[in-house]
Specification:
103 residues, alpha+beta, HU Protein, Chain A, 2 domains, 3-stranded antiparallel β-sheet, two-stranded antiparallel ribbon
Length: 103
């Protein structure tokens, strides 16, 4: 079964690993996330070598379907979305660590 890891848990793990109090780590993590969002808002492409790339892409307008009322089309308007492409090391690490029963 998949487990959800929260920002709070990531902060706790980093704090423990660095022998710091979570209150010392939290503003750094939050600032990092805020800067990531600011850059994406400006349309910047963010690249972390071997981790991955974040970029904003434009999704075209399309027609979707409501599963409960499949005969009634739902118009999904054109919109911006954040795309993440994993880096080589991350891709290799994830591919070698996930067991087939989790997929």
């Amino acid at each position: 079964m998949k487990r959800t890891i929260t920002k709070k848990e990531i902060i706790a793990r980093i704090a423990e690993e660095m022998d710091k109090h979570p209150n010392d780590v939290r503003p750094i993590i939050q600032s990092f996330l805020d800067k990531l969002v600011e850059c994406l808002e400006r349309g910047d492409r963010i690249e972390f070598r071997d981790f991955g790339i974040f970029e904003v892409v434009r999704r075209k307008k399309k027609i979707g379907r409501n599963p409960k009322k499949a005969q009634i089309p739902v118009i999904i308007p054109e919109h911006n979305a954040v795309k993440f492409t994993s880096g080589k090391k991350m891709k290799e690490a994830v591919e070698s660590s996930i067991s087939p029963d989790l997929v």
